[in-house]
Amino acid sequence: MRKSSHHAVRNALHKHPDGLTVFELHYRFNIHQSTIKRALENMPDAYIDRWEAYKGRGPLLWRAVWCVVVPPENCPMP
């Protein structure tokens, strides 16, 4: 059975309200980037907040900065 990385990714994003990129999450957890990307895409509370430019070997490239929705303190249960 495979272990889900959703919990670790969600906790990291809660601790970093400015968001993290897939690469930054990969660096923190040593989880393959495709696994992290798949987890983010399947988390209903995760979203792309903005894009950051970075210099690769060639032209300027872009990375998505992911965040999670933080429900308000008094938010009623569905």
Descriptive terms for the model:
78 residues, alpha+beta, Arc Repressor Mutant, subunit A, two-stranded antiparallel sheet, 3 helices, 36% helix, 24% strand, globular
Please, could you describe this protein's structure?
It is globular, with a radius of gyration of 14 Å. It has a single domain, classed as Arc Repressor Mutant, subunit A (Orthogonal Bundle), CATH 1.10.10. The chain is an alpha+beta fold and 78 residues long. The mean pLDDT is 88. It has a two-stranded antiparallel sheet. Helices cover 36% and strands 24% of the residues. It is built from 3 helices and 2 strands. It has helices at 6-15, 22-29, 33-42; strands at residues 46-55, 60-68.
What count of helical segments does DSSP give? Answer: 3
Summarize the helix and strand pattern as letters: HHHEE
pLDDT under 50 segments (min length 5)?
none
Question: What is the quaternary state of this protein?
Answer: single chain
Summarize model confidence as the mean pLDDT: 88
Please compute the radius of gyration using only Cα atoms.
Answer: 14 Å
Q: What would you call the shape? A: globular
Task: List the strand order in the largest sheet.
Answer: 1-2
Structural class: alpha+beta
CATH topology: Arc Repressor Mutant, subunit A
Ends distance:
31 Å
Helix proportion: 25-40%
Named at the architecture level, the CATH assignment is: Orthogonal Bundle
Biggest sheet features: 2 strands, antiparallel
Tally the structural domains. Answer: 1
How many beta-strand elements? Answer: 2
Question: What is the CATH level 1 assignment?
Answer: Mainly Alpha
**Beta-strand content bin:** 15-25%
